[in-house]
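Hello,

Our lab assistant flagged a job as stuck in the queue for most of the afternoon. It eventually completed. Since we weren't sure the result was trustworthy after the delay, we are filing this so someone can double-check. Below is the sequence as submitted and the structure that was eventually returned. Let us know if re-running is recommended.
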Amino acid sequence: MKYFISAVIGLLAVWGFYLGNKNSAQLASDRPSPPLTTLAASSNANNGQQKNTSTAPDLKPIGPSNKGEKTGNEFLAQYKLAAQAGLGSRDTLDKIYALGIDKTTSNFKFISDRLKSNVSKEERVALVRILGEFYTHDDADGLNSRVLSDLRQIAQSNDAEVARAATFSFSRLGYFSDSESILLAAKTAKYIDDQEYYGELAHILPVAPATSQKAIADKIRLGENAYSSEILSSILQDKGALKAISPDALGVIKSVVMEHEPNFPQAPGQFGLLDAVRYSDWLKSIAILNGGTDGRDFNNVLIQHLNDSTIDPRKIISFLVSTDGSQFISAMGGAEAFKKMQERIDTYAKQNQANSTIQEVVSGIREKGKKASH
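-- returned structure --
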C-alpha cells in the first residue's frame, strides 16, 4: 500500500537522486503531514466483525540496532520493578511501544491492570497505545475481545487525552459494529476534531462491510474535508483495498477526491515537498478511478490532466519526479504529449532561474525523457 508517509520517503529518495543527494528536507513546506494511518488492504470476517488485515506503515525500530541494547521485554521488566516501587516512566513505556513486547496473556494482564490503577495521565496514554498492540490477526491467545472491551471502556473516559488515545487505538484495529458510534462520540465530546473524525472514517471504509461502505462515504463527502480525501487517494492505490470497496461507495469516493484537488499555496517560485506528494497521490487516484490501475487508459487520464493549459507547472513536476512519474516517462518519453509537459516545466524553470533546486529537477526529468525517447 502506498501510504502517505511512504510516498514522502519515496519522493525524498527520488529528489536525492536528481539533486545528487543534496539535503531534500529544504523542499518541505511548513504544512504538517497527516499522521501515520492504517489504510487497509483487505477485510476478513471475524466473529461477525470486519478485521483489518493490514497495518499502518510503522517507523518503530525493528529490535535493538546494536548488541547490548535493551529489548522491549527488558524495558517492560524494568518498568514493572519501577511500578512496584510506586514509580512510573512515560519514557520507558514509549520504548516498550517502539520496540514491542511478547503478546502474552500475562503481559496483557499487567498492562490492563496498570491502566486501572492510579497512574499519571502521561503513563495512561502510553499504556493505551501498548494495549492496542495485543490485538492480533490470528487471535492466537484469545486476547482480542479483551483488548476491544478495554479500549471501548477507556474511550468513554472523562479524561480527554486518554479517551482520545483509546479512540484512535480502537479505530486502527479494523471495522466493528460500534466503530462509527465510538468515533462520533469522540467527535461530539471534542476528543477528536472534524479532520480526525472524517479521516478515521476514511481509514475504516475499505474494511467495513460492503453494505455499510456507501453510508460511510456519504458521511465523508458531507464533511467536505480535504484530509479524508488525501487518505482516500492513498487507499485507492492499493489494488486489494480498491477491490474491497463497493461500486456505490466508489462512486461517492470519486466525487470526494475530485472535489479536493491539492494546490500549491506558496509563491510560484517555491516548491513544497509535501504538497508535491499530495498532488502526485491525488493524480494517480484520479487516473485509477477513471482509467483503471495501469495501461493506455490510465496514461490518457494522466495526459489529460497534466497537459491542461491552466495547470500549475509545479503539479507536472510533482508527478513526473515521483516513482509513478518515472514509469510514465519510460512509457511516454518519446510521445508528443510528454514533450508538451517538458516544454511547460522548461518555461517554468526559466522563469525561476534563481531556484537551483527547480533547475536541477527539471533538468533531470529532461534527461530521463531523452533516454526514454531513444
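-- support follow-up --
The delay was a queue issue, not a problem with the job. The result is valid. Residues 1-5, 16-48, 51-65 have pLDDT under 50 and may be disordered. The beta strands are 43-46, 49-52, 174-175.
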